[in-house]
Specification:
OB fold (Dihydrolipoamide Acetyltransferase, E2P); Rossmann fold; 3 domains; 5-stranded mixed β-barrel; 13 helices
Length: 425
């Protein structure tokens, strides 16, 4: 025989238990009930001879609202699977559903019927009829004395603009309730057949207030489910509260959590129209007020005193304009003489500056020329002791000219302070 480790032995037991046993329905008494901060519940199921650990985790706890009232000592029926905890080598029941004793069987019957009808196609979405947006006539199947009828009518009357509600009373609890509900539905259908086309029902509502599983059991009747499925009129199921579900909820064309929710659904189209009418009404009133204010202002502007003020205002305006066009007192401004004079002054100033600049330049030039002429003046040279000869009124500037002069020809010697006559020898 092979020797196993502790882990291998525990895992072998875990595989056998979880694979072979699977899910169980176990009845027992709750002991050692506790809960964790994460939302999990831990307890034990006990009878006179044995005790079994159990756990119900948070997600399943949400689907079991009866846990709120559960306490140690309660007898319950739990639905779950056996699980082995390897670290401690213990096994426990992982609970999916928990109900007080007496409700477990009803729950199982409900689940079996639900599964059966689902296979037969009663819950198929493509077979459901659409709920009209603006129903004119509504059939209500519920107890005449119950709060559901008052809740529905109160909400529907408050939200709707029109609509006729026909109540077909029925028992909604007890052994006779399923047949009573079926007869009430049949009456409405027969009545609908007798009506002209424009007076037929637009929708039917099957409703009652919340309660326990036993209280709502009449709405889990198979025959009633088939009647709802075959109903030619769109039908809404509004049974119980948000957490309550019945077979009629699944087979109906639409499910509402409460009677008030059903009334809100059927009146939503009219409510939107009311909102639009209120919006248009406010917009119209605002437009009228704006128009009245505009007309009032226009009327005030059209009064004799207002017209006279406008006339005087225009008169003063045009008077000021005429003053601006006074040619006699404003010749320079209007004829642009001022601009011309100003331009002439600018040109004159520019010309004077140009002449002054040109004169200064010419004076400088003349001074330079005069200085050059003064330096080239022969009298200045004669003043330094030089002389020159003149023959026949011409200056003898070189020896070649002097050599050509004839003997005894008269010459003039020019000094700075006078002239002397000589002859060439």
């Amino acid at each position: 025989m092979k020797t196993l480790t502790v882990s291998e032995a525990v895992l072998s037991v875990k595989n056998v238990l979880e694979k072979e046993i699977g899910y169980l329905l176990i009845q027992g008494e709750v002991t050692n009930l506790s809960s964790s901060g994460a939302g999990h519940y831990y307890f034990s199921l006990a009878d006179s001879e044995s005790i079994l650990s159990a756990a119900l985790f948070r997600m399943d706890a949400y689907r079991n609202p009866s846990l709120k009232n559960l306490k140690s000592g309660d007898k319950v029926v739990c639905y779950g699977r056996i699980n082995v905890y390897p670290k401690k080598g213990t096994f426990q029941l992982i609970v999916n559903r928990i109900n007080p004793v007496g409700k477990g069987e009803l729950k199982e019957r409900f689940e079996r019927l639900k599964m059966k009808l689902s296979r037969e196609g009663l819950f198929d979405v493509d077979k459901k009829k659409s709920i009209p947006r603006f129903p004119k006539k509504i059939g209500l199947i519920t107890s005449r004395e119950g709060a559901a009828v008052q809740d529905f009518l109160k909400v529907y009357k408050r939200r709707s603009l029109w609509g006729h509600v026909v109540v077909s009373p029925a028992l909604v609890q007890g052994e006779k309730a399923p047949s009573s509900l079926r007869k009430a539905l049949e009456k409405l259908i027969r009545y609908d057949f007798s009506l002209p086309e424009n007076e037929k029902f637009d929708a039917l509502i099957l409703t009652r207030g919340g309660g326990s599983l036993e209280d709502l059991w009449a709405f889990n009747d198979e025959a009633l489910a088939w009647d709802i499925f075959n109903c030619p009129i769109p039908i809404i199921s509004a049974v119980g509260h948000e957490v309550d579900f019945t077979i009629s909820d699944f087979v109906s064309d639409f499910r509402c959590e409460t009677p008030s929710t059903a009334a809100e659904l059927l009146s939503e189209g009219q409510t939107q129209i009311k909102r639009q009418l209120m919006y248009f009404s406010k917009s119209l009133l605002s437009a009228i007020e704006t128009k009245l204010i505009t007309l009032k202002r226009k009327t005030e502007r059209s009064s004799p005193s207002a017209i006279l003020r406008e006339i005087w205002k225009l008169f003063n305006f045009y008077e000021r304009k005429l003053q601006k066009f006074d040619l006699k007192n404003r010749p320079f401004e209007l004829l642009k003489m001022y601009e011309k004079n100003q331009r002439l002054d600018e040109l004159q100033n520019a010309l004077e500056k140009t002449i002054e600049k040109e004169m200064a330049t010419k004076n400088n030039f003349l001074e330079k020329v005069f200085e050059m002429l003064r330096l080239l003046d022969p009298s200045n040279i004669l003043g330094r002791g030089y002389t020159y000869l003149i023959s026949n009124k011409k200056v003898v500037s070189n020896y070649s000219q002097f050599d050509k002069i004839k003997s005894n020809e008269p010459l003039e010697i020019v000094f700075k302070d006078g002239r002397g006559k000589v002859k060439k020898s």
